[in-house]
Amino acid sequence: MPAKLLHKPSPAYEELDPVVGALVDEVIGRVADKWTMLVLEVLETQGKLRFTRIAEAVPGISQKMLTQTLRQMERDGLVTRTIYPVIPPRVEYELTDMGKSLGEAFCGVWQWAEKNLKRIEKSRAKFDLRAARAIES
Amino acid sequence: MPAKLLHKPSPAYEELDPVVGALVDEVIGRVADKWTMLVLEVLETQGKLRFTRIAEAVPGISQKMLTQTLRQMERDGLVTRTIYPVIPPRVEYELTDMGKSLGEAFCGVWQWAEKNLKRIEKSRAKFDLRAARAIES
DNA sequence: CTGCATCCGAAATGATACTG
DNA sequence: CAGTATCATTTCGGATGCAG
């Protein structure tokens, strides 16, 4: 992989190969999903978990969205789903190697978010203040 | 951010500081947005650009979404917006230092996406095949 | 306990027309 | 050129009921 393509393929790259470019965008769209990121984070830090544990660990997620997110992640090969044929049912989810590697790739983003939280809030306050004054005048 | 929780417990960091935890989630939700990521990437690799150039470089984005995304990024302090009072209007967008640092944080995710594209496609094909067979039987 | 199916309102997005 | 405004459409997400 050339150093030039460390990031998303440039427009030139997409003109050469629009299909691959579109697919990369599609994958980014999938992976850059709020619930996917939060579930990924939980599974990365807490290891193998069952459905209800994940629901508890991801604040605000509904059962429907959790099921949907886990199915997508399973389809994409990010998690394994293990069903224990017992009563009551027991289903456990665990990151695959690919899932773990994605978690590591996102690590920098989490750090960035924590580190820059206050700066973002300040920026927003400033922006909103300027906007308010613009309306007055 | 969802308002209501269907369950009681929370992740470790939220128990320590629920407010900060919620804010980190909010920032992640914002930053882990498809269009934000794509625009960020374009500005990172191509530097200062005007509105139409960005639109051309981000395949599939609508004018509305580009405007919205750029406004949010400006509000969060990720980009600067420079207006040249000429006719026709000329507006240029450029990453701030904070925007650039976010771009670097996302670098690993881009690499991951390119690297694992084929593996994801294979996983999906396999999953869909199993699902199809499950329906038949 | 897990999680699918369905309904429904809310929110996000796209398409189009229009403006300084 | 760089938007804003509006409307149509799609998607999201919560609530509920039910099944294995």
Would you give an account of this structure?
Two copies of one chain form a homodimer. Chain A is mainly alpha-helical and 137 residues long. Chain A is built from six helices and three strands. Chain A has helices spanning 11-16, 18-31, 34-46, 51-57, 63-75, 97-136; strands spanning 49-50, 79-84, 90-95. The first copy, chain A, has a three-stranded antiparallel β-sheet. In chain A, helix 3 (34-46) packs across helix 6 (97-136). The radius of gyration of chain A is 20 Å and the shape is elongated. Residues 1-16 of chain A have low confidence and may be disordered. The interface between A and B is large, with 62 and 66 residues. Chain B binds a DNA duplex (20 and 20 nucleotides) through residues 2, 4, 6, 50-52, 62-65, 67-68, 83, 87-91.
> What is the overall silhouette of chain A?
elongated
Q: What oligomeric state do the depicted chains represent?
A: homodimer
Question: Which consecutive residue ranges of chain A, at least 5 long each, have pLDDT under 50?
Answer: 1-16
What's the number of extended β-strand segments of chain A?
Answer: 3
Q: What kind of sheet is the major sheet of chain A? A: 3 strands, antiparallel
Percentage of helical residues of chain A?
55-70%
